[in-house]
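FORM 12-B: Structure-to-Sequence Request
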């Protein structure tokens, strides 16, 4: 039994040895070229058959002597007969043997290897291409090309041309070993062409690719000029970012449209530097596109989380670019980095694509415009697959140019749309902006700023002065303004319940609330009167009335706070009147004061005192109401013609109840029609018809003081003899 097992074991070892020798013999078949081809007597490009095999160096470098001596060392044979695309490792040399027969009458032919696959688009050609001719076991170096060599070290000029000399005598057959390498790992397919030296070195022909490229550059230059003008006109940051984007895109397109010309002119001594710059410009264009999007969409305000994500994506793409340049040209194998780079790049592009697809479905019009443009740009990446699997390189270049053209036009339209929209908003807000600029005007000096707290700037402007230093004693001006008087009800009894310190704090707190409201409605406080305020409004009456309403509403908020702390609620009356006013500087040489002198002030003060009589929050004169441009925007009630103390001429009074409490406002609004009918009948001497309307108002709103007063007056009129010249004027002392 042991003998049988031992015999079988020896048989298996012998069989494996025989098989191993057979495999090695197959690999060591050096005499079988990867391609056999005969050069025809033609001037155009001739395409060689696909490679049947290629030899990948191992850890030990191969030399041409090793190949002549059939010493493969630890190299690996790759069979390309079934699958011509193979994984090319970075900075690894790959060898293949050609059997070339020259049937042409010339020896000026070159071998032009080109790569297909998913290699980085920034690499315009191989890193290294070398050719060696074997004649009777004699080695002759016949060609050098690739981006590792300077211009004067190559067989042919130009960056994208990887041609090497063949130097084959007419009618002879030679074997040529070719070595090539790539700076990065990728799936590679080597395509071989035979070209004449005349064809390789002839000037570039103007074709559709060059035409589209030049057209696109012209459009970019025009947009760049327009954007610079827009930035100089508006000084907006977004135009500056667009200038950066267009400038980098312009340089990038120049490098792609005229690669050989740029290389020969600027980088003939450092070919790899040109590759770095193309890589750098590509990343710069893409990241500036993202940054421009952040500014255009205002993601920091509208989409803060996406704003942060795009910032991280920009950093990721730059890290991958810098690291990629380093590892591709570091001189050692970096296949592991290529794998990481592909994963991270795919992740970054997927995140970018997701963000802008999300923007397409938002309500932000700027986001939708920009996302459309960026998605067009991202579609260029998919053209890489079109190039490999469907169409040729030239058609792919045309498609890429067309997509770039659409991208530039889309961004330009988006920027134009933004300009039009914002310009409309500026025009709509121009009036408000001018008023705000007046209020926020910078003062010339600190002393002028301090003096404005005592003498309002508007007061000085009426006098034609820029600051208090220009004001002189006796100067005055006459203006038509609205005078506002406000007064705290029952202030005397309120102050008696507080200490002087608490009283002062109360008044200061109250004025701090009311003062800004007056200023916000284009008025200024002429004088604080302890528990009252005298303010002037030089502009439209609508703003003045809105300011008075805002003061009453602020008082409601203030009362809510006081009620929560157990304090008594307060009330305030406001009187409004418009007329001519003398404003000037009075006093003496050592003491000046800004003063107002006018009967308008006295009438406004008297109207304010009437708020106590009528129990109203805001009263205004008919003169003031006549200046209100949109009276229908407010809720008003006619209260009659009043002759106040010290005045012979009556004043027609109206109540505005927009600043009342919510309950009071609703009651007065609901009874407004009855109230107006009652007053109409009353002043038409139809007292019996007027009384039911006033009673209806009072029944619905028992706290309506004016309705109660009209009821009293109506009842008196019904039992008294009314003279023929009765006008309904009421005298209130």
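FORM 12-B RESPONSE
SEQUENCE OUT:
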């Amino acid at each position: 039994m042991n003998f049988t097992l031992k015999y079988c074991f020896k048989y298996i070892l012998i069989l494996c040895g025989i098989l191993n020798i057979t495999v090695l013999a197959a690999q060591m078949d050096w005499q079988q070229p990867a391609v056999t081809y005969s050069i025809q007597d033609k001037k155009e490009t001739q395409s060689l058959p696909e490679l049947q095999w290629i030899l990948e160096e191992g850890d030990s470098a191969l030399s041409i002597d090793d190949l002549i001596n059939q010493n493969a060392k630890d190299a690996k044979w790759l069979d390309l007969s079934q699958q011509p695309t193979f994984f090319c490792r970075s900075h690894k040399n790959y060898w293949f043997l050609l059997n070339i027969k020259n049937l042409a009458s010339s020896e000026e032919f070159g071998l032009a290897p080109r790569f297909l696959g998913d290699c980085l688009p920034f690499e315009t050609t191989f890193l290294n291409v070398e050719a060696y001719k074997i004649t009777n076991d004699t080695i002759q170096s016949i060609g050098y090309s690739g981006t590792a060599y300077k211009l004067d070290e190559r067989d042919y000029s130009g960056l994208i041309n990887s041609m090497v000399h063949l130097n084959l005598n007419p009618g002879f057959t030679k074997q040529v070993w070719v070595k090539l390498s790539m700076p990065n790992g990728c799936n590679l397919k080597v395509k071989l062409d035979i070209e004449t030296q005349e064809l390789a070195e002839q000037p570039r022909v103007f074709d559709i690719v060059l035409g589209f490229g030049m057209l696109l550059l012209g459009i970019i230059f025009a947009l760049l000029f327009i954007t610079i003008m827009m930035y100089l006109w508006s000084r907006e940051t977004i135009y500056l970012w667009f200038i950066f984007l267009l400038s980098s895109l312009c340089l990038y397109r120049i490098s792609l449209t005229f690669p050989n010309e740029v290389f020969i002119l600027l980088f003939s001594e450092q070919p790899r530097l040109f590759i770095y710059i193309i890589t750098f410009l590509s990343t710069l264009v893409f990241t500036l596109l993202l940054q421009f999007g952040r500014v255009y969409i205002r993601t920091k305000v509208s989409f803060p989380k996406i704003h942060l994500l795009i910032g991280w994506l920009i950093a990721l793409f730059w890290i991958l670019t810098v690291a990629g340049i380093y590892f591709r040209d570091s001189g050692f194998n970096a296949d592991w980095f290529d794998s990481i780079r592909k994963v991270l790049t795919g992740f970054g592009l997927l995140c970018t694509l997701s963000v802008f697809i999300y923007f397409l479905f938002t309500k932000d019009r700027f986001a939708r415009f920009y996302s459309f443009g960026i998605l067009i740009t991202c579609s260029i990446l998919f053209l890489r697959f079109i190039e490999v699997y469907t169409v040729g390189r030239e058609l792919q270049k045309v498609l890429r140019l067309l997509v770039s053209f659409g991208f530039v036009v889309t961004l330009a339209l988006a920027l134009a749309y933004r300009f039009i929209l914002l310009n409309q908003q500026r025009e709509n807000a121009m009036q408000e902006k001018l008023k705000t600029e007046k209020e926020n005007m910078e003062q010339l000096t600190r002393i002028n700023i301090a003096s404005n707290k005592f003498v309002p700037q508007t007061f000085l402007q009426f006098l034609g002065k820029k600051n208090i230093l220009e004001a002189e004693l006796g100067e005055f001006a006459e203006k038509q303004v609205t005078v506002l008087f406000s007064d705290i009800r029952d202030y005397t009894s309120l102050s008696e319940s507080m200490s002087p310190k608490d009283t002062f704090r109360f008044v200061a707190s109250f004025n701090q609330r009311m003062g800004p409201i007056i200023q916000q409605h284009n008025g200024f406080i002429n004088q604080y009167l302890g528990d009252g305020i005298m303010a002037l409004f030089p502009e439209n009456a609508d703003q003045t009335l809105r300011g008075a309403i805002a003061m009453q509403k602020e008082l409601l908020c203030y009362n809510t706070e006081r009620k929560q702390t157990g304090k008594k609620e307060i009330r305030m009356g406001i009187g409004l009147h418009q007329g001519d006013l003398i404003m000037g500087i009075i006093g003496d040489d050592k003491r000046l004061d800004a003063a107002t002198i006018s009967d308008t002030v006295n009438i406004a003060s008297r109207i304010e005192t009437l708020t106590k009589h009528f129990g109203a929050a805001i009263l205004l004169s008919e003169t003031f109401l006549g200046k209100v441009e949109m009276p229908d925007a407010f809720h008003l009630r006619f209260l009659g013609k009043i002759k106040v103390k010290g005045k012979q001429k009556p004043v027609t009074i109206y109540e505005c109840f927009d600043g009342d409490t919510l309950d009071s406002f609703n009651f007065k609004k609901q009874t407004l029609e009855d109230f107006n009918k009652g007053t109409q009948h009353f002043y038409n001497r139809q007292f019996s018809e007027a009384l039911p309307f006033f009673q209806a108002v009072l029944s619905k709103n028992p706290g309506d003081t004016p309705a109660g007063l009209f009821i009293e007056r109506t009842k008196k009129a019904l039992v008294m003899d009314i003279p023929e010249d009765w006008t309904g004027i009421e005298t209130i002392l």
